[in-house]
Amino acid sequence: AAAGGTSPGGIRCMLMRGGTSKGAFFLAADVPADPVERNELMLRLLGSPDPRQIDGLGGGHVLTSKAAIVSVSEDPGADLDYLFLQVGVERPTVGDAQTCGNLLAAVGPFAVERGILPAGGEATTARIRLRNTGGIATASFATPAGMPDYDGGTEIDGVPGSAGPIELRLGGGEASVLPTGLVTQTVAGHRVTLVDNGMPVVLMDAASLGASGDEDPGRLEADARLCAVVEEVRRAAGPLFGLGDVTEQTVPKVVLLSPPRQGGTISTRAFIPFRVHESIGVLMAASVAAGIRIPGAVGHDLALLPAGPEHDIEHPAGVLRTRVDVTRGEDGAWRASSRSTRTARKIFDGIVFPRPRR
Ligand code: NQM
């Protein structure tokens, strides 16, 4: 008999790759509703705190220490609700201050697998409410024979091989992508642009920090002086985004920009924020593209801006293509919507057993 749900022995869970990240997916009904109990359970399931997460599902890196909680939405404008949780690796933290555009790619297929979203024929489109930020995204993916088909010929940099495409659309709301209304400002002594097109991001010129901007993530992480400056700027920027004290939060992110080197639009190194991303987040890339299109913004003069809306955001593992349409309203506010193609895969489906309470 299926042991699933909230049975004392274990919790029903699907491990999924979404884009260049990996996370544990749960139905909301299968985990405690109380956030304190739920977060404590997530730490025991993923094996945190521990740099190797040896006693749990986590992979020892922030990009593989993630959870998604999915349910049918009560919002008439959405089919599904998606709550993202960033589970700390070395520290016992569970944060809900940000969403994750990479895991978002796996939310629709997971919901079809679990039977909470009917497949729509050859392809299914799901309207997904992002519970962390309040936004709505749509995801379209192949469902021949009524189930997700993860196979296909789409390659994304940072993932070996190819898989079936999942088309994500985000944004398009009334909010300005410049939360302070300023194109640039000085934060902790540095000229930055604060932009939010789905993810709050501080844009910085890598050269202004003495970096070339094409360093390996490990090399940037080993530069204690540079990391300290990035963190000082990030903490000062937090309240300007309306996020309050962000010392313990994973937002805003800080992205170092430099001229493109692979024929793309711009080169990026993303502090997320205590590690440097091995590629770049989907929504981070959408925020970068929106920011650099605005004349005068940090990065505008470093970029090779395309005539059309397809931006090739260079990152340590290659390029992420994001289609970002930026418009300026009659009120002077800059707004944006974005689209990206990702892939996802079901890795295992089963019952996960939490580490005992210590
Ligand atoms: O920006 C990592 C990732 C992300 C976020 C992070 C993301 C996005 O999974 O949309 O996907 O924010 O730490 O790549």
Can you give a write-up of this model?
The protein has 358 residues and is of the alpha+beta class. Helices cover 16% and strands 32% of the residues. The chain has 5 helices and 17 strands. It has a 17-stranded mixed beta sheet that branches. Strand 13, helix 5 (282-292) and strand 14 form a beta-alpha-beta unit. The longest helix is centred in the middle third of the chain and has 17 residues, at 224-240. The radius of gyration is 20 Å and the shape is globular. 46% of the residues are buried. The structure holds (1E)-4-oxobut-1-ene-1,2,4-tricarboxylic acid.
Task: Show unreliable segments.
Answer: none
> What is the CA-CA span between the terminal residues?
30 Å
Which ligands does the model contain, each kind named once? (1E)-4-oxobut-1-ene-1,2,4-tricarboxylic acid
Q: How many strands, which pairing sense, and closed or not: the largest β-sheet?
A: 17 strands, mixed
Shape: globular
The helicity comes to: 10-25%
- Put simply, the count of helices is 5
What's the oligomerization state?
Answer: single chain
Encode the helix/strand succession as letters.
Answer: EEHEEEHEEEEEEHHEEHEEEE
Structural class comes to alpha+beta
Radius of gyration: 20 Å
Mean pLDDT: 96
Beta-strand residue percentage:
25-35%
Q: Total number of β-strand segments?
A: 17
EC number: 5.3.2.8
Protein name: 4-oxalomesaconate tautomerase
GO molecular function, one term: isomerase activity
Keywords: Isomerase
